[in-house]
Write a structure and sequence with these properties.
Glucose Permease (Domain IIA); 12 strands; flat; alpha+beta
Length: about 525
């Protein structure tokens, strides 16, 4: 019995796990196939432009990798189905054994019933009882025996139904496997075809290596010329910015000097205006201190006199005269205490007035200094938040695929070519517009010998560069916001539409992928 339950629990757990993993694999394959369809669409669009482009080859490689992932997932799903078929068969075998036992036991029950004729002849069996109690017990026995037979028949029927269900589930798994194998064969055929396509594409690259190498070197020469112009422009911008900053600092220092002089004069005036009032308050405070001391001394004296009188009255018998003296002394003591409190309050008020005057004077001095700085045009230094947004800048195109990364890179096919990239290259659909990634001002619009254009946007001490534009939509000196179109991406020498995007920190190019959100 324990083994039976353990087996059933194992089957149940496997079914749950299998169902979850199978569903997960199917979802992954659906998403992968969606990506493959999108790449196929992009390849169809760019097929007429040029097959001998890195962007086209990158898409083919990406699609092939996705196909292989789908195939691997299908292999996993097939193994799950095979495991399920095996376990279903084990379950069917177990159920057949149990059904055989149930049928054997039921046959024995029927044989016993047949042999015991009295049990079948129920009326005779009951009427042959010796008394009423025995008759009732025989009726109960016959009912229990009948229920037992019905139960055994029901168990046999249920077991047969379960076997049919298990067989149907196994047949479904077998059919699922057959469908999966057909799809797997199709996927394998497609993968082989796409591998052949990739190999043909690489062969075409190598076949046209001389031509492509010459065109690439020509493009690199053009890029070097553009880079030289960019460096010259950025160096000039830095020189101008440095000169302007020095002039600004000098002018700012002079403004600060004049503002401080004006502030000192205003502070002296405030000091003179408040001097008389401060002296008067000081006199009032000193007078209040003297009065408070005098009142306190008087109160102490009265208290001492009262203490002595109380002691004398305790030593001698009290009289009417003593009582009158006691009332007078108490009154005098209370008046002295009241005067002491009044004097203390007056002293506190005098000190508060002095403190308020001192605060008012300081506030007026600060306000005078601030006003002087404002009047002379002294401004707070403005910060550059381009650096603060590192890693969060917008992407320069709505949709695109990075084909060349920053720095020294080996050409993916032409092994004798090494590219030195000051930025990244992004393959995009025809008609794509490049966008400014951050607010700034257009420093320059350059034209290359191949007809393409370059836009340089300044962001404080940083620059973003958008090259290989077929047309531009901004002009020198124009202020742009994040997302402002700067131009339409042009066609590269290999026929693909590629944006060359760069980020410079001063006169040094940096990796754009460390700055943009991609």
């Amino acid at each position: 019995m324990i083994k039976k339950f353990s087996f059933l629990i194992g089957i149940l757990l496997f079914s749950l796990q299998y169902g979850q993993k199978k569903e997960q694999l199917q979802k992954q394959n659906a998403e992968l196939k969606k990506q493959i369809a999108q790449i196929n669409s992009e390849l169809a669009k760019t097929r007429n432009e040029s097959k001998l482009s890195i962007a086209y080859l990158t898409n083919v490689n990406k699609k092939l990798a996705l196909r292989e992932k789908v195939y691997n997932n299908t292999q996993k799903e097939k193994r799950f189905i095979e495991d399920e078929i095996y376990l279903r068969q084990l379950e069917i075998n177990r159920q057949n054994r149990e059904l055989e036992i149930l049928r054997k036991n039921y046959a024995e029950v029927l044989v016993n019933a047949y042999k015991n004729k009295g049990v079948q002849n129920k009326v005779t069996f009951i009427l042959s009882s010796k008394n009423l109690g025995e008759a009732i017990r025989r009726v109960q026995y016959l009912k229990q025996y009948s229920d037992y037979q019905d139960k055994k028949a029901a168990e046999i029927t249920d077991a047969a139904t379960q076997i049919k269900k298990s067989i149907a589930q196994r047949q479904k798994s077998v059919k699922d496997k057959e469908v999966l194998l057909v799809n797997q064969q199709k996927d394998l055929t497609t993968i082989n075809a796409e591998r052949a396509q990739k190999e043909q594409l690489v062969a075409d690259f190598k076949k046209n290596e001389a031509k492509l190498t010459a065109e690439l070197k020509q493009k690199q020469t053009q890029n070097k010329a553009v880079e030289a112009q960019i460096r010259t422009i950025i160096a000039e911008e830095i020189r101008i910015a440095k000169a302007e900053e020095e002039a600004r600092k000098k002018a700012e220092a002079e403004k600060i000097r004049l503002a401080k002089l004006a502030a000192e004069r205003e502070k002296a005036r405030i000091e003179a205006e408040n001097k008389a009032r401060a002296e008067a308050l000081e006199r009032e405070r000193k007078l209040a201190e003297a009065e408070a001391k005098k009142a306190a001394d008087l109160a102490a004296k009265r208290a001492e006199e009262e203490r002595k009188r109380t002691e004398e009255a305790a030593r001698s018998e009290a009289s009417a005269k003593d009582a009158a003296r006691k009332v007078a002394a108490t009154k005098a003591s209370e008046e002295a205490n009241a005067k002491a409190r009044e004097a203390a309050n007056k002293l506190a008020a005098a000190k508060a007035a002095e403190a308020a005057l001192a605060k008012k004077k300081e506030d007026e001095k600060k306000a005078a200094e601030s006003k002087a700085m404002t009047n002379f045009g002294v401004s707070a230094a403005a910060g550059n938040n381009f650096a603060a947004n590192k890693g969060r800048l917008g992407f320069p195109v709505d949709k695109g695929q990075i084909t060349h990364r920053f720095g020294r890179q080996q050409h993916p096919v032409l092994k004798n070519i090494v590219e030195e990239n000051n930025g990244i290259k992004i393959s995009v659909p025809s008609g794509t517009r490049a966008k400014s990634v951050f607010p700034g001002s257009v420093t320059s619009v350059l034209a290359s010998s191949d007809g393409t254009k370059t836009v340089i946007v300044k962001h404080g001490t940083y620059f973003t560069i958008y090259s290989n534009l077929g047309s531009v939509s901004v002009s020198k000196g124009q202020q742009v916001s994040a997302g402002t179109p700067v131009g339409t991406v042009g066609q590269d020498f290999d026929g693909s539409y590629t944006l060359d995007f760069q980020v410079w920190s001063g006169s040094t190019p940096v990796d754009p992928l460390g700055w943009v959100s991609y």
